[in-house]
Design goal:
Layout (H helix, E strand, L loop, with lengths): L1 H31 L6 H18 L2 H5 L1 H28 L7 H23 L4 E2 L9 E4 L2 E4 H23 L1 H11 L1 H6 L4 H27 L1 E2 L3 H16 L4 H21 L5 H15 L14
Antiparallel strand pairs: 1-4, 2-3
Helix pairs in contact: 1-6, 1-9, 1-10, 1-11, 2-4, 2-5, 2-9, 2-10, 4-9, 6-7, 6-9, 7-9, 10-11, 10-12, 11-12
Length: 301
Amino acid sequence: MEEFFQQFTNGLAVGGIYALIALGYTMVYGVLKLINFAHGDLFTIGAYLGLSILSSIGLTEHVGNITGVLLLAVMVMALVGIIGVVLDRAAYRPLRESPRLSAVVSALGASIFLQNMVMLIYGARFQVYPQDILPKVAIHIFGVSVPLMRILILMTSIILMLALYFFIQKTRIGTAIRAAAIDQGAARLMGIDVDKVIMIVFLIGPSLGGAAGLMVGLYYGQINFTMGWVYGLKAFTAAILGGIGNIPGAMMGGILLGVIEAMGAAYLSIAWKDAIAFCVLILILMFRPTGLFGERVAEKI
């Protein structure tokens, strides 16, 4: 029972990370009907920016560990969000009226460019995060010791996902995003600046991906310039699982995929960890192509 609970909480934490990345995919697809293949590399940039800020500024030494990590997360999210906006202006906006395949090719090219840029700047070796940022303590839940880091990652993921959900559902900008996702032409006739909406989408999605990259660095302690490819594919799987273009679906799909992957690695074999994720993708595409929450088209975003 203890092993099951440990794997379950680990799956929830990893699933929260997948869900944050998946939200970037699903928001861009909801508005532009485009799979942003460079999104995984923005997640990688978030992890490397977090390491750079930690190493150069030393936030935790000046304001304390917890406050330092919070400030670090805000800075990383802001910087990656700005990079996402620049990516849209450079790689996607010029192709807005072109065939969809052109934008897909541009997204793949942007992914390759960003991945190699990170490699040239930081090198091809694994980079290691400082290990003394957050205390290595455990909290006892139902008699089982759960690492504090795991709980913090899960709670932070849930807070960010709920904040995004309420932003989309309860604010004027969120209403504009939902309108643009349903029909851009009608949204323009209603006075909505669709280009501004797209800019906001490219600001929010990558910022959540950057936060996820920082979490991976703090959780696992090491990062690599290629990790965006693996995490990006799994987050894309999570988005498909929940229903691409559906924000609640991306949240639930990420968490569900993380739990399935953790349980499969524990009770089958860790060597099958990645294969399990893609088997889930194949099964969903075969038996429910719209995803678990993908039927209510008018609610998509």
